[in-house]
Amino acid sequence: MFDSIKQAVIEMDDEKTKESVSIALKEKVDPVEILEKGLIAGMQEVADLFARKEYYVPEVLLCSEAFYAGFDKIKQLIKGSSRKPGAKIVFGVVEGDIHDIGKNIVKVMLEAAGYEVIDLGRDVPVLEFVKAVEREKPDILAISSLMTTTMTHMGEIILELEKRNMRNAVKVIIGGAPVNEEFAASVKADGYSPDGPSAVKLIEKIVSG
Amino acid sequence: MTDILTPRERFGLLVIDEKPDRCNTIPLITSHAASVRGMKLRDYYTNGENMARAQIAAIEKYGHDAISIFSEVGIIAEAMGTEFDYPENDLPIQRIPALEKKDINDIEIPVPTSDARLPVYLEAIEYAYDALGDRVPILAYIPAPFTTGMMLSEPNRFLIQTIKEPDHVKAVMEKSLAAAIELCYHAIDAGGLPIIVDPLASSSVISPRAYRQYALPYERKLVDFLHRYDLDVILHICGDTTPILDLLKETHADLISIDRVDLTDTIKKLSSTVRVIGNYDTSLLAFSSPEEIASGVRDMVKLSMQAPKGYIAATGCEVPIHAPFDNVMAFINAAKENGWYWD
Predict the structure, then answer these.
(1) Does the N-terminal or the C-terminal CB of chain B have fewer CB atoms within 10 Å?
(2) What's the fold here for domain A2-78?
């Protein structure tokens, strides 16, 4: 049962995912279990395939579509259930950069791992990040940039948080193709991850202190 | 050591398998040139003379070995109908992709002398060539069909189409190839040496299988077209190309420029047939110190300059717009000092 949902996600098959979720619901399987043992288990396997370079971005996008197709069927049923939300993450791509595919992939992996993600979208000005931190009071601010030309905005966001005495209220993590450990250290970010699977691990580490 | 050759002579010797006085030093100084000239980015990428003047100012300041006429990979897609915003202090931002409004069959091959900002590029090439063309190679960056295809499309949709709608993607590739060839004609005519850029075809984005299916055949067609002019063709792919290193040879490109790949490994795999360009980490250029850069570049050049078919010291990706001038200078000085071939 869970295995067919999981496989449908891994096989990038949105129709089959919906179908398998429907069957499970008809058989009165707990939606939280459908989510965790089926859909999320599937995305975790997808994350592994991505990390092992067996899947690339297009494959992960299709798997994400399948995941959300199944998730939409159970979303309402899960609300108010026993599933506790994890940490809250505000997430966006810096100004001048419209490359949000990487962010979207990391987002689905974070949601699959149980985190609440507030998505600011792409081409987000420095002050919008700061305002979102003020408004949402997230545990983590995640910033993405795909271009060497725009990644300097990441440092500006962190400086702006410092200026407003908000830096200690939130952990800041960064990612994106041109970013690395050294860069993260130089802009005083709390962490860096190169892709979705490691972002999940990084956040787990930060949240558990 | 003082330079003996001009950058043009230096590049000329490299491509006929002779050792120049020193290693060609061509960090990808593109829009960073606007910072050197103290110019707003919008003024740089919307006006050919400004772009050329900024590039010339950068050459005068740093003394590197080529002009780079480029701002972003959307230029061909824009001329085919994708709409862009022009922020004052940022590069153009894709707003409405052409293929969200029109079918690929209804999109026309652009006329480089009149459509969108292609005339800006041509004017920049021409201006730079008139000013420095006898001494310095003028590199004209040409987005490859795969990258243009993604800029014509909503990016998520396009990537999904590479799996679900191969015929559509191939139609997009054919048209983008025709557009790239058209731009190349004019860029060469204006005095530019085309450098093909295909960052969105890297293994940071698509699988080697998709690269072989959609990117490689069209990169090769573009390279083969340029070979009719007897040009030495550079192919640059940012990002990770480790899984497709062997395939890069099949593009027929004469010089291959790499980013997030092990340089020694690349030289081992490619350098019996192609000249390798690369690959200093651009994020270090933005945020480490001149001393660290000098030592990193020295190591890189020492390790790579004896590559059998020659080597160009470069950055793996574009020099960040706001990279400190001292850092860029440190890169160039270190590459020159440590890359000396002649006694």
Answers:
(1) C
(2) 1.10.1240
The ranges assigned to domains in chain B are: 7-338
Q: Do B90 and A95 touch (CB under 8 A)?
A: yes
Across all residues in chain B, what is the average pLDDT? 96
- Residues of chain A contacting B286 with CB distance shorter than 8 Å: 148, 151-152, 183
The CATH number of domain A88-207 is 3.30.1330.30: no
Does the structure show a pLDDT above 70 at B43? yes
Q: What are the residue boundaries of the structural domains of chain A, listed by start?
A: 2-78, 88-207
What is this structure's pTM?
A: 0.91
Low-confidence ranges of chain A (pLDDT < 50): none
| pLDDT at res. A104 | 86
d(CA A12, CA A197) in angstroms, rounded, equals 18
Encode pLDDT of B226-270 as tens digits. 999 999 999 999 999 999 999 999 999 999 999 999 999 999 999
Helix pair angle (B118-132, B166-189), 10° resolution: 30
Measure the CA–CA gap between B206 and B191, rounded to whole angstroms. 33
Chain B interface disruption, residue of A13, A49, A57, most B CBs within 10 A: A57
> Which pair of structure tokens corresponds to residue A32?
């939280």
Classify the C-alpha dihedral B309-B315-B317-B318 as positive or negative. negative
pLDDT, tens digit (0-9, with 9 covering 90-100), for A85-111: 678 999 999 988 777 888 888 888 888
Read off the tokens for A29.
């399987």
Give me the pLDDT at residue B166, please: 98
How close does chain A come to B212, measured CA to CA in Å?
A: 14
Question: For chain B, how many residues are written?
Answer: 343
Specify the CATH number of the domain B7-338: 3.20.20.210
Interface contact A56-B260, CB threshold 8 A: no
Using beta carbons and an 8 Å cutoff, which residues of A are at the interface with B?
A: 12, 53, 55-59, 61-62, 65, 95-96, 98-101, 104, 123, 147-152, 155, 177-180, 182-183, 186-187
Does residue B62 surpass a pLDDT of 70?
yes
Q: How far, in Å, CA of B79 to CA of B76, rounded?
A: 5
How is residue A38 annotated by DSSP?
I
